[in-house]
Design a protein that fits this description.
Length: about 300
């Protein structure tokens, strides 16, 4: 188990896992750890929000517990469920054994043995390496009732199971929430958290990320790829490529033994950076050349 002792230390710890972390992000991560507050990360798709939680868990030597949010997610999928099939088997077995004590059977059926722990409950259990990192990913996909429920769970880090009683986290988990902002998350929940907007990285940072994630790429190719993607983000397109796409694209180019970019190569590999046919159509032909020329001019 590792403790982060300063903002610089957070940067180094995350850097050692391959996560390139700017000063602003490192500061908010450090404060979240120091004050024990949940970290709320919002930003465009593919900018490294989910990865922060993974990198943090790895850097601090903690277990990562992930709650992937989706529409219709409810408490039974997020906190706990009773193992109904196993309970049925236990009832049948008791019946076959002939007239078991009903009260004893009831107590047995609602004991830990038949409890199925879901991420939120798991995150409240003590872990060997210290409190886990709890990643609540893409919270904007859930609905408001679940958000309200989460607000309560995050405020006192305890879960009440009627049949078992209240389970309290001996040490609160390190909570990271992410949102792609497909809707606004309620103020009450945001107020509990430290907030950070994860933006597209600068040219320098994105080349550092590429060096960490696709180290096989030559410096020339990396710089061209990043300059092109950065330029592309300023264009009027429907879905701008994230850092994930930059990395994917570099890997595709490496697989094709590309040494430097050309309009033809770009056209052939656009599917790695653009995921909408309208955007791809726009970039075919002279547009790719224009953007490449502009990107190269910026590099020079
Ligand atoms: N700062 C960074 N340092 C290292 N790798 C990064 C960084 N930012 C993004 N990446 C890489 O980019 C990819 C996408 O990151 P991630 O999945 O965390 O994005 P996200 O913001 O959660 O996207 P989505 O909104 O689509 O879920 C990952 O493979 C991650 O390793
Ligand atoms: Mg994500």
């Amino acid at each position: 188990m590792t403790e982060a002792t300063s903002i610089d230390h957070v940067q180094t710890l995350l850097g050692d896992t391959g996560y390139v972390c700017g000063r602003a992000l490192a500061t908010v991560v450090f404060l979240a750890l120091k004050l024990g507050r949940p970290l709320f990360l919002e930003g465009e798709a593919g900018t490294g929000k989910t990865e922060i939680a993974k990198a943090l868990a790895q850097a601090l030597g903690r277990r990562l517990i992930r709650l992937q949010c989706y529409e219709g997610l409810d408490a039974s999928s997020a906190v706990y469920e009773w193992n109904f099939p196993a309970q049925m088997v236990a009832i049948r077995t008791a019946e076959a054994a002939g007239g078991a004590d009903r009260a004893a059977l009831r107590t047995e059926l609602f004991s830990e043995e038949f409890l199925v722990e879901r991420p939120l409950l798991e995150a409240m259990r003590p872990q060997p390496g210290g409190a886990p990192v709890l990643l609540i990913d893409e919270i904007d996909r859930t609905d408001e009732p679940f958000e309200a429920f989460l607000l309560e769970a995050l405020s006192d880090f305890q879960v009440t199971i009627p049949e078992l009683g209240t389970i309290h986290a001996p040490e609160p988990p390190i909570v990271v929430l992410t949102s792609n902002r497909t809707r606004e998350v309620h103020d009450a929940l945001k107020r509990r958290c430290l907030y950070h907007w994860v933006d597209y990285p600068t040219f320098e940072r994105e080349t550092q990320i590429l060096a960490a994630r696709a180290p096989e790429a030559s410096e020339t190719l990396s710089r061209e790829v990043v300059a092109f993607v950065q330029r592309l983000r300023t264009e009027d397109i429907f879905k701008k490529p994230g850092v994930a796409e930059t990395i994917d694209w570099a890997k595709c180019l490496l697989a094709l033994d590309v040494i430097d970019l050309s309009p033809e190569v770009i056209s052939d590999t656009l599917g790695a950076i653009l995921k909408y046919q309208d955007d791809i159509q726009k970039l075919h032909g002279s547009e790719a050349r224009r953007i490449l020329d502009e990107a190269r001019a910026q590099l020079a």
